Amino acid sequence: MQAAEQNFQAIDDWFKSWKGASNEKITIMKMLHQFCGWQHNERINNWFVADQDSLMDFVEWTCILARKGWKDPYDDYRQYENDESDKLAKELYNRAVTYAKKGA
What is the pTM of this model? Predict the structure, then answer.
C-alpha cells in the first residue's frame, strides 16, 4: 500500500489518460493484459486460441513497439505506437469484433 501511495499521482494520471480512449485502444489494452496474465479475459483468450493468426499478429504488434523502444510491458506502450502499429491494432480490433459477433 505504501508503494501505491508513493506513486499515486503517476497511477492516477495513467487511469485518467485512458478516459475517452477509443474502443480500439481499450481492446488492444485488454489484449495486452490477457497476454501478460494481468487480467484474464475469457473472450480474448478464446479468440486467440481459435484464431492463431490473430495471436501471431498481436505478437507482431508487440514486436513493432519493441523496435520503437518498448522493452518493459509495465511501461505505457502508447508512447511507442506508430503508423505501422496503429494499422495492425486496427486490424486486430476489427478481427476481434468479427469474432465476437459470430458468438464464438
Answer: 0.81
